[in-house]
Amino acid sequence: RCRAAGHEARRAPLAPRLPDLAIVPNPFAGATSIFYELAGETEVEIAVYDIAGRLVARLEQGRRGAGSHALAWDGRSGAGRALAPATYFVRLSAGEASVVRKLTRAR
Description:
By secondary structure, the protein is an all-beta fold. Helix content is about 0%, strand content about 60%.
């Protein structure tokens, strides 16, 4: 708590630290690499969504440790079909936090 001008105020809890997420190359034609960094051990899910918000691929799911992680994605759906050139969104969910990055699949 802190006191200011005769009033007591409660400090808001700190927001969870957002994980870092980078996609290289972006745009991509054949394959791309997804790099992410976690502040601590947590449950992780990395998923790809189309522009309408439909899940097209789940790339990673499970408990991961603190530090840097990387994975490659070949631009295929969860069913193994090559996705059309378009804009997609990659979402990294790590514990209570999530980060979204736009990804473009080129011809």
